Amino acid sequence: MNEKDDKQQGLQLELPQQVAQGEYANFAIITHSSSDFIIDFARVLPGVPKAQVKSRVILAPEHAKRLLGALQENIMRYEREFGPIKIPNQEPRTISPFDLPKGEA
User: Rounded to the nearest 5°, which phi and psi values hold at 14?
Assistant: First the structure.
């Protein structure tokens, strides 16, 4: 463990009550420029022609890549515990942006 890891472990997060409840989103749009990734989380409702953006997160490219890795790791853990996540109307495929060894149950 290095000094940077020590500082990150000591980080305390404040979670205000209005943020702790979260926002439900069932749609995300990701765009990028040379310096930022922008993720808009939206809610699409049946019979409503417009999706409403509920939250926008702007990340540096390095943080976007860290998020990708963290999501991939957490999805692998989830699927080990609860089984594969099925996406309706989509051919089964392996999402592997990194050359990671395949997990075995």
Answer: -100, 130
**Cα radius of gyration (the chain):** 17
Give every CB contact of residue 23 below 8 A, 6+ residues apart in sequence.
41, 43, 54, 55
pLDDT digits (tens, 9 = 90+) for 26-50: 999 999 999 999 999 999 999 999 9
Q: What one-character DSSP code corresponds to residue 67?
A: H
pLDDT at 41 (0 to 100): 96
The confidence band for 68, taking pLDDT boundaries of 50, 70 and 90, is very high
Helix-, strand-, coil-residue percentages of the chain, each rounded to 5: 30, 20, 50
Rounded CA-CA distance 80/58 in Å is: 30
